């Protein structure tokens, strides 16, 4: 199966468990892969038949900045449900990185894969 992907989508937002995290935005970076069949878009050269990575990116940014959350787990589950419901893909993998969270680490984060219920 083909994939449409988004790499290192940068979003600044309020997220975190601790009080100090509820006042200052932090950077998150998203890597997203969505299974799809690219042939209809390729045959017609029509964006309307493509899984539009610009529209997915806009939706991820809008949701991530809409309401403060504590856990990365909550955020990626919500985003996976939105992508599966609103876009033409049966399986999505989302990896979110929060590089400022652990000073001694290059980055930390969470990755999930979710499928549309059959
Ligand atoms: N599995 C997780 N562990 C932690 C999270 C998280 O969202 N998922 N969050 C924090 C804090 O908010 C951290 O980022 C602040 O340093 C700690 N562990």
TrEMBL record:
Which GO BP annotation is one of this protein's? folic acid biosynthetic process
Which reaction does this enzyme catalyse, per its entry?
7,8-dihydroneopterin = 6-hydroxymethyl-7,8-dihydropterin + glycolaldehyde; 7,8-dihydroneopterin = 7,8-dihydromonapterin
The protein's annotated pathway:
Cofactor biosynthesis; tetrahydrofolate biosynthesis; 2-amino-4-hydroxy-6-hydroxymethyl-7,8-dihydropteridine diphosphate from 7,8-dihydroneopterin triphosphate: step 3/4
- E.C. no: 4.1.2.25
| Chain ranges of the Dihydroneopterin aldolase/epimerase domain | 4-114
GO terms under cellular component:
cytoplasm
| Family annotation (InterPro entries) | Dihydroneopterin_aldolase, FolB_dom, GTP-CH-I_C/QueF
Give the record's keywords alphabetically.
Folate biosynthesis, Isomerase, Lyase
- Keyword Lyase assigned to the entry: answer is yes
Q: Which GO terms describe its molecular function?
A: dihydroneopterin aldolase activity; isomerase activity
Keyword Lyase carried by entry: yes
Biological function: Catalyzes the conversion of 7,8-dihydroneopterin to 6-hydroxymethyl-7,8-dihydropterin.
Q: Which family does it belong to?
A: Belongs to the DHNA family.
Among PANTHER family, the record links this protein to: DIHYDRONEOPTERIN ALDOLASE 1-RELATED
Q: What is this protein called?
A: 7,8-dihydroneopterin aldolase
